[in-house]
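In the current project phase, we have settled on a layout for protein records. One protein thus recorded is set out beneath this paragraph:
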Amino acid sequence: MFELLQVLLREAPRAISKAELHRRLWPDSHVADSTLTSLVGEVREALGETGQRSGIIRTLHRFGYACTIRPTVARSEPAAPIGVPVDDGMGAAGTAAASGSAAPSPREVVGEPATAAGADASDSK
């Protein structure tokens, strides 16, 4: 399923014939058109397309298929690694640095659960 979507996205918005899809997806096998049709249906379902809401994959009757969207690369800020102070917009990240303490409080560390009185879970036994 992923390979079909990948081919359609790479070639978007160009239409790809059924014969070309057969060559690219199953280069060493003979596969019936019904298999390709079923695979397209699975991709459409995975994309949330229904009879009323479709449009990402367009069927070109008696020819093949085309992807109607062009992929783009989204750029986003990478997440802070676990244990790195995070500025929550409330000035919490600067607290440890400003006070000169060696380690940030549990509230300031991503992935660290806050515990009562700063005690480690193993200390409470």
Q: What stands out?
A: The chain is about 30% helix and 10% strand. The radius of gyration is 26 Å.
